[in-house]
Design a protein that fits this description.
heterodimer, A: mainly alpha, MetI-like fold, about 80% helix, B: alpha/beta, Rossmann fold, 2 domains, six-stranded mixed beta sheet, four-stranded antiparallel beta sheet, 10 helices, 10 strands, binds adenosine-5'-diphosphate, binds magnesium ion
């Protein structure tokens, strides 16, 4: 038993994972990952809402541009997109800065991560929300119109609440993808959880310990998210008899 | 009697004031001309029953009146206010349309209650958010209205848990909550099981009796005869015949109306 314990390096693990040491680094990496995931998800939702409305009600040019956006983003592997968006983005910012007579700008890792992943999330969110909006029975929107609600109020008071139950499962998936896609930012040297883990592992050679710990942290994020989204879904489905029958 | 009211009634008796006037209304969907020049006037307190075969343009006419459909041409006057339209019939002033719509409460065949809101929330939605009535006041009024349509105690229920008849009565409460100057009913009982039709007709009959102005598209001929003071028979986008119910039902002139009446009897 002790042999196995030793073999797996678990004896040393507690020490290695201490908060003042590598463990603290991992948690900071997690915090960075979550910060980016939140930001990117929020940005993605905003883009998605505009994108969905644009696709459904926009003019021809708007619809074509959005079609290109969602098609390209969803066709190209995320890793490639991240590299493209990150380097193109920082290039553009630097060009602008130099054009304005300034020097090269230090790109803020968190802001860049949110921007890059947010643009990716936005494409998927556009499709999730477009489908959800289309699933809202037209009668509900007509009723709102026929009682003199202005367009924006209809969106806020009728369309968005009514589409939520159709959108939440897709949006929950997108959130989980957002948390995991933060790992891809390691390629541009951003100190999120995966990169921190790799650094800790290679410095100490305790690969098993650190990757297991990182896996555990990702799993905890997923489990907590699942609990939160279950509640959100229940709220979004208010007023709809459950599929299992019975009341509420 | 209050003298001001008396004076006003001498000038213009309330029941003769015009509520809705439609002039030469045309509506096409693509190449299909659905309304081919409809003229219709409803005065305050009028109950106008609109009858006609399926596809004759009844819903389209009703929907043009509050601009859920854009008329192709014609003129619509609501409460003496001429609705500004462009050449293509579309309203040129969205604010005006929204204001007018709050005076024309629509009751739909499929109820169209907002399913994510309770009955009470459905009824206070427009008063609170569109008409800016204080919430407490709106709630109090909504409770009265739900009580009135026989749904007291169902305030916190969601529409999906109610029968069609109950949903339609809630939809009528929602319509009454905006204190409309006219109500537009589009086949309010057509989606209901036969045994639920009566409860909805009872509510509508009550509204007619208290002098509500309404346009009522219906297939319930007996009911139309009983509550309406004017019956309009629409055939392929034109008004083929109209008049008091006793005339239209008792002594139809046109062959088509005779045929229609015998087919639905
Ligand atoms: N949005 C629409 N697009 C195309 N055709 C329509 C539309 N709405 C109604 N119509 C057509 O217009 C005609 C009249 O419809 P409607 O007014 O609903 O008739 P009714 O209510 O008398 O049964 C029908 O032939 C119908 O198919
Ligand atoms: Mg119809």
């Amino acid at each position: 038993m002790t042999g196995l314990f030793e073999l797996l390096g678990l004896g040393a693990s507690a020490e290695l994972l201490s908060l003042s040491g590598w463990g603290g680094n991992l948690l900071r990496g997690l915090a960075n990952s979550l910060q980016i995931a939140f930001g990117a998800y929020g940005l993605g939702l905003v883009i998605g809402l505009f994108g969905a409305y644009g696709k459904l009600y926009g003019g021809k040019v708007t619809r074509d541009l959005l079609a290109i956006y969602t098609t390209v983003i969803r066709a190209v592997p995320e890793l490639v997109l991240i590299l493209i968006l990150y380097y193109v983005g920082s290039d553009i910012i630097n060009k602008i800065s130099e054009g304005l007579g300034g020097g090269r700008v230090e790109i803020n890792g968190v802001a860049a991560g949110i921007w890059v992943l947010g643009v990716v999330q936005g494409a998927y969110a556009t499709e999730v929300l477009r489908g959800a909006i289309k699933a809202v029975p037209v009668g509900q929107i007509e009723a709102a119109k026929s009682y003199g609600m202005p367009a924006f109020m209809i969106m806020r008071r009728v369309t968005i609440p009514a589409m939520m139950s159709f959108a939440v499962p897709g949006l929950a998936n997108l959130w989980l993808i957002a948390t995991k896609d933060t790992a891809l930012l390691a390629v541009v040297g951003f100190n999120e959880l995966t990169l921190e883990t790799r650094q800790a592992a290679s410095s100490t050679r305790a690969y098993f310990t650190f990757f297991l710990a990182a896996g555990f942290l990702y799993l905890m994020v997923t489990l907590c998210s699942g609990a939160v989204f279950a509640r959100v879904e229940k709220w979004a489905r208010r007023g709809q008899p459950s599929l299992k029958g019975g009341t509420s | 009697m209050d003298t001001a009211a008396a004076a006003a009634s001498v000038l213009e008796p309330a029941t003769h004031r015009e509520a809705i006037r439609v002039e030469d209304l045309h509506k096409s969907f693509g190449n299909l001309e659905v309304l081919k020049g409809v003229n219709l006037t409803a005065h305050q307190g009028d109950v106008v029953a609109i009858i006609g075969g399926s596809g004759s343009g009844k819903s389209t006419m009703l929907r043009c009146i509050n601009f859920l459909e854009t008329p192709s041409s014609g003129k619509i006057v609501i409460g003496g206010e001429d609705v500004a339209m462009r050449k293509d019939g579309s309203p040129s002033n969205q604010k005006q349309i929204e204001r007018i719509r709050t005076k024309l409460a629509m009751v739909f065949q499929q109820f169209n209650l907002w399913t994510h809101r309770t009955l009470l929330e459905n009824v206070i939605e427009v008063p609170v958010h569109v008409l800016k009535v204080p919430k407490a006041e709106a709630i109090e009024r909504a409770r009265e209205l739900l009580e009135r349509v026989g749904l007291g105690g169902k305030e916190d229920t969601f529409p999906a848990y109610l029968s069609g008849g109950q949903q339609q009565r809630a939809a009528i409460a929602r319509a009454l909550a905006v204190d409309p100057s006219a109500m537009l009913f589009d086949e309010p009982t057509s989606a209901l099981d036969p045994e639920l039709v009566g409860e909805v007709l009872t509510v509508i009959r009550d509204l007619a009796a208290e002098g509500r102005t309404m346009l009522l598209v219906t297939h319930e001929m007996k009911f139309a005869r009983e509550v309406a003071n004017n019956v309009v028979y629409l055939y392929q986008g034109r008004i083929e015949e109209q008049g008091p119910p006793a005339e239209v039902f008792g002594n139809p002139q046109s062959e088509r109306l005779k045929q229609f009446l015998s087919s639905v009897a």
